[in-house]
């Protein structure tokens, strides 16, 4: 497999000091579920397993010792849009806390990326309601050859918190991009041990992320098994307990390439996300192997 350039990843997720584990969980959700489109230049998709009308749902858990309470629900959809009078596509993440996390640290967040008809990212945004803190992020992207420039703005009802211009070269994404890039790669040409990396712009931060392909794997959950492709993630950010192999991702091994499971090690415990259901997929969900109830 051809080598990919080492890039940087920009992320807008801030770690709340008082509720660091909850914010850590949210960053995990974003890294797993919210990375869907590509940048100009080197990273155009040769394969597009996603389609307008796709929606994938997840349940999220926070693991701490022997405890593993349900933490929230998330969904991602991909659909046609006419944002800013530009015909194109939008990828959107909706996330909400549930159960005990509702009383500890209530969250209602929406993230979205907007692409033109050629699937070039031109804007991304995030609307946050996190523990009573409200904010809006907006990033406008522009491209010149292999160079990417982005105006990043974050504001609350009372003040502007970020107003800056970010620049980079090569493969560059926002938070809704890298997983879709991962989904679009040619898995048949991958060999166990292949590594690749890139960067994503959001807020004012830069977080280095790399993927390591670990081969095929079978996952079992409830009354189903899933054929998957297993990847580990190097995430060099203070949120995570360790940089190398900070997270693991299992991608469904069929033509849809949807994420089936994520596990991430955090400074306090771990976060896990599981596929629950989907609709509007481009292809049949052949990675799922149904099992008779009561049989393992």
What characterizes the major β-sheet? 16 strands, mixed
Count of helices? 3
Helix content: under 10%
Report the C-alpha radius of gyration, rounded: 18 Å
Q: In short, what is this structure?
A:
With 296 residues, the protein is mainly β. It has three helices and 16 strands. It has a 16-stranded mixed sheet that branches.
Describe, in plain words, how this protein is organized in 3D:
This protein has 296 residues and is mainly beta. The protein has one domain (20-290). Helix content is 9%, strand content 49%. The protein contains 3 helices and 16 strands. It has helices spanning 20-33, 100-104, 178-184, and strands at residues 54-63, 70-81, 88-97, 107-116, 121-130, 133-144, 147-155, 160-169, 172-173, 195-200, 208-221, 224-236, 247-252, 259-265, 270-279, 288-290. It has a 16-stranded mixed sheet that branches. Strand 5 (121-130) and strand 6 (133-144) form a beta hairpin. Mean pLDDT is 78; it is low at 1-23 and 32-42.
């Amino acid at each position: 497999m051809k080598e990919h350039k080492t890039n940087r990843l920009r992320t807008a997720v801030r770690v709340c000091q008082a509720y660091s584990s909850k914010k850590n969980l949210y960053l995990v959700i974003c890294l797993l579920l919210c990375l869907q489109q590509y940048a100009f230049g080197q990273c155009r998709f040769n394969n597009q397993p996603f389609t307008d009308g796709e929606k994938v749902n997840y349940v999220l858990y926070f693991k701490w010792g022997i405890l593993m309470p349900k933490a929230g629900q998330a969904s991602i959809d991909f659909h046609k849009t006419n944002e800013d009078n530009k015909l194109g596509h939008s990828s959107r993440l909706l996330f909400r806390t549930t159960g005990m996390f509702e009383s500890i640290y209530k969250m209602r967040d929406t993230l979205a990326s907007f692409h033109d008809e050629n699937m070039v990212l031109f804007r991304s945004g995030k609307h946050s309601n996190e523990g009573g803190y409200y904010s809006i992020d907006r990033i406008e992207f522009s491209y010149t050859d292999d160079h990417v420039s982005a105006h990043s703005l974050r504001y609350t009802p009372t003040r502007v918190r970020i107003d800056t211009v970010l620049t980079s070269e090569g493969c560059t994404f926002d938070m809704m991009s890298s997983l879709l890039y991962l989904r679009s790669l040619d898995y048949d040409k991958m060999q166990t041990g292949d590594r690749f990396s890139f960067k994503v712009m959001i807020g004012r931060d830069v977080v280095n992320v790399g993927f390591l392909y670990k081969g095929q794997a079978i996952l079992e959950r409830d009354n189903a098994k899933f054929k998957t492709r297993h990847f580990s993630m190097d995430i060099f950010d203070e949120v995570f307990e360790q940089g190398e192999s900070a997270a693991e991702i299992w991608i469904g091994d069929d033509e849809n390439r949807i994420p089936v499971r994520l596990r991430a090690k955090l400074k306090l415990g771990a976060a896990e996300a599981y596929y629950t259901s989907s609709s509007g997929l481009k292809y049949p969900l052949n990675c799922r192997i149904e099992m008779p109830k009561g049989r393992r």
